[in-house]
Amino acid sequence: MNYEQSYRRLISGQSTGSGASILRFLLAAGAIGYWPVVRLRNLLYSTRLLKAHHVDAAVICVGNITVGGTGKTPLVVWLCNLVTRNSKCAILTRGYKARAQQNADFEDEIAIFAESCPETQVIVNPDRVAGAAEAIDKYAAKVLIMDDGFQHRRLARDLDIIAIDATQPFGYGRLFPSGLLREPVSSLKRADAVVITRCDQVNSDELEGLENKLLAINPNLVISRSVHAALYAELANNEKVSIEQLRGKKVFAFCGIGNPDAFLNTIRALGAELAGSNIYDDHYHYTDGCLAEISQQAEELGADLILTTQKDWTKVASNFEYQISDFKSSPPFAYLAIEIKFLTGEDKLTALINDKLAGKIARK
Q1: Plot region of 148 (φ>0 → left; ψ -120 to 50 → alpha; else → beta)
Q2: Per-residue b/e over 151-175, b at no fewer than 16 CB within 10 Å?
Q3: For the chain, what is the radius of gyration of the CA atoms?
Q4: Which residues contact 202 (CB under 8 A, 6 or more apart)?
Q5: Nearest-CA neighbor of 125 among 117, 136, 133, 114?
Q6: Alpha-carbon dihedral 8, 11, 16, 20, rounded to 10 degrees
Q7: CA nearest 87: which of 364, 353, 359, 358?
């Protein structure tokens, strides 16, 4: 079990014993120190004692209130493809755990943005104000999409869209490090919209209860329900395997994302048989030895396919490019391509975006 799995088991209460209880007490003490800092910072921005910088472009923030994967990346891709129909757009990202590769900053989300949004310029800079200036001055962007920026209040925004994972919406109800909350749920009062992700992995009563809780916090929220719809699996040689072809196949899965259970549940929901899996820490850096071990495990378990996420694929694809002969034998490696699909509320969200940005988006 990796570090992040162990941590989640600890804070969720699954880990038992006196040692786990002591660790939870220490984490709770850490959260007590964390809470005043978050509250003071938000108060300073809300009272304008700390300045939010306004820029000559429309700014849309896509963020979350919890640590870990909420399925935000497909939402950013959807938003970019919506906005670029009418205006030049740029994505502002901090480049979390980016690493140097081929003389360029490389990171899983960045690679996905570049591939999925070819008309959008991706700006990697932990200073979002400086990144915004670059996007406007160098690329003439009129709409800036700030990825993972809800807590980055230094850059003023016209719209805040929050992604909330239906399977763990409020991070065990406790602030980090005792829970997964980056800030109190009351912070949703400053949000404009919430997109609930992975709605297919909880029942309708849970979804209705979640929506009621959100509206109790902020009655003005526009709420949408969504799923991560699987499109196909793609092999290292670019061959596509349809969803129908995946049904009944024995799959060995591996990933290093914030919510690995969601990925495994998606594979099961497709009708594939999960023969085994390896779970790594979020943003894990894969080595040749690691992939060789995965390949051996999958072969021993009789898997037909080794499947990972698109995020993980961006970090392992170079291994196949330079050592493709090592990975041609059965079972082959592939990634599961997905896109966000709205179940409800897409029209309301689109209308909100158009309304908020009316007059600020320059037509092409």
Answers
A1: left
A2: bbbebebbbbbbbbbbbbbbbeebb
A3: 21
A4: 166, 167
A5: 133
A6: 110
A7: 364
Would the pLDDT of 144 be above 60? yes
H or E segment and range at residue 302:
none
Nearest Cα to Cα of residue 73 among 65, 83, 64:
64
Question: How many of the other CB atoms lie within 10 Å of CB of 355?
Answer: 9
Confidence of residue 303 (pLDDT cuts 50, 70, 90): very high
Q: How confident is the model at residue 183 (pLDDT cuts 50, 70, 90)?
A: very high
The residues that bridge with 341 in the sheet, in sequence order, are 227
126 preceded by a cis bond (ω within 30 of 0): no
| Complete DSSP assignment for 66-102 | BSS--SHHHHHHHHHHHHTTTS-EEEEE--TT-EEET
Chain-centroid distance of CA 349 in Å reads 19
* pTM of the full structure: 0.89
The Cα 79–Cα 233 span in angstroms is 23
* pLDDT over threshold 60, residue 101: no
Q: What is the mean pLDDT of the chain?
A: 89
Residue 355 phi/psi, 5-degree rounding, is -70, -45
State percent of the chain over pLDDT 70: 92
pLDDT-based confidence at residue 363 (cuts at 50, 70, 90): very low
